[in-house]
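I hope you will forgive my troubling you with a question about protein structure. The matter concerns a single protein, recorded as an amino acid sequence and a row of backbone structure tokens. Please examine both parts with care and let me know of anything in them that strikes you as inconsistent. Here, with my thanks, is the record as I have it:
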Amino acid sequence: MNKNSKLIKFIKFVITFFIVVIAIFLALKLWHNYMNNPWTRDGRIRADTIMISPDVSGLVEKVYVKDNQLVKKGELIFQIDKKRFLEDVAKYATLFEIQKSEYQMKKKQFDRRFKVNNDVISKEEHETATYQLEIAKANYDKALVELNIAKLNLERSSVKASEDGWVTNLVLKNGDYINKGENSLALIINNSFWIYGYFEEHKIPLIKEGDIANIQPLGTDFIIKGHVESIANGITDRDNDFGKRLLANVNPSFTWVRLAQRIPVRIHIDEVPEGFILRAGVTCTIKIIQNK
């Protein structure tokens, strides 16, 4: 019994020893993987976005799209009431015709008086007639510009998509009054998606442009293929503030526990798995495969 008891204790010791060794080995491997392999869970799918805003002010006559709708370049998004703009075009068209007739009359008078018999006309009369002709020409040009602006405002009352993309955050309704330059909705440009990965600063030296990137969106088994396109050259220094007279406002205290800064890495999307739809703002895990 004594020998059996010692053997059992020895076996327990060996098993415990191997379990501890394996645990230490796995812990070291995990630590090495965390410290030296460039990966992050702080990734975001991004896309280029256009803020749609009108170039003129007015009442919204009709909204032609719905939220989250895919639109084509040049497609009408909403129409601003154009009655006022039609009236402006008619008004400036009339003024243009008046100034055009005035200029043509002045030019004919000038040509008739000074090109037929210029010897009997005094220099003063010639200068006066030239001045009046130039004024008529300037008024004609001004009326033409005003007419073109009125036509442009009429055209801009129809707000259209400047690119193919997805309408998002649409809150505009029929009858709303919208001001010139006021953002009415966002348009996510189609096929403009890319990924930003925020990597800890000590992992940045391990990342090179062109490295392969595997991206896994949160909560899915899909793997998006990509490659490192560029690495940001700077981020905001939160301790580098300015005080009075533009002197550096340095924090006098220093924390011993320093959190690693995260540097943005832009990743170009090469391949999207079938069945997965790219959506801006989605969180993802990014693993970089270094080129040897």
Observations:
- The chain has three domains: 1-36, 40-47+193-289, 50-186.
- The two ends are 60 Å apart (CA to CA).
- Residues 100 and 140 are 6 Å apart (CA to CA).
- The mean pLDDT is 88.
